[in-house]
Amino acid sequence: MDSKVTLYEHDFKGKSKVFTKSCPDLTVDGFNNITSSVKCEKGVDFIPGKNYKGQIFVIKDGENYGYDKFKGYFNDKALSLRLLDENDFNGEPECTLYKHFNYTAPTLTFADDVKSLKCYNFDKMTSSVVVKSGVWVGFTQPNYDGYQSLFLKGSYNFSDAPNDKGGFKNDVLSSFSKIMLKPSAPGKMKLLKIDYDQAVARTSRTPTSVFRWMQVNSGSVVQTVPKQEEVAIKKEATYEFKWDRAAKVSATLTAKTQIPLVGKTGISMSADMSVSMGSTAGTNKSKAEEWVPEYPSKIKPYTRSTVTSTLTQGNISIPFTALLCDESNTERTIIEKGVFYGCQYFDFQTECKDTKIPTPKPK
Length: 363
Known about the structure:
Helix content: under 10%
Oligomer: single chain
Mean pLDDT: 86
CATH superfamily of the largest domain: Proaerolysin, chain A, domain 3
Protein name: Beta/gamma crystallin 'Greek key' domain-containing protein
Keywords: Repeat
Pfam families: Crystall
Family: Belongs to the beta/gamma-crystallin family.
Domain Beta/gamma crystallin 'Greek key': 4-84, 94-179
């Protein structure tokens, strides 16, 4: 399995070194005890103490950890770098936790990341672990934080074994993350199908004031409003495909497909459009629109005329399941999941309100 990991002396700055294979002693490469951030472009590695001993910090392809994340564990302490064997990642991931020693019930079985075991009444209650397939990382804190233990296929009781050999203390684990590397397609990836789970979509609609104008006619005759400078309200709709942590999706994946839209009353689908949905695509623009408010042509005597325009911002987050394949071999397919995030603008409203002002008293 190819590997490419870059260590930095500072927060992705200063002295750096690229590693493509395991290194038992970073002293040889001048990086002993000075690492403050790390970037992994290929493969899966972990950073332990010298000669692969001590606490570990697992990082997989596509992940970057800056000083803020790294400082609590290995800032200026990293002593070695080790690549995991690709053979460890075969099969669909499945892990079972046991509350008691020697694999005794109650149990909890899962096949996807668990952000917090507290949600399953299993927080800090694990005494043994069985990994049926895949590779898993156990964390001592929720949200994949805290100290880590690496679990390959096999059975583990709590013990003083090294952390990279499934060693963990009794009743300390709070979250789990799978590491499952699917073989990279030799050619470009292609989207065959994508399904959005509208039943669990989250939407919000927020009206916002985007324009205000006011003019007062303090005279006794109708006032003609002079031509006003046109003001255009411009907004850009955006979208993002955020893949699951373990998804194996190329960074440059593009496709012609529909995306969900949140409207005034519900969810609809756009027409087919070209979208960027690769693992590093981030937030993209889908449509630029503009609206122009209208001014009154005349204002009545002793009247304050106010024009207010509002525009509704709609946000949506919706889980999706995508069927992908190698562009040169449509039979070589994989299924990946993630969450789609979209932001659109609609329901532009302009209201003109006239308010009477006091008339002057006769002299």
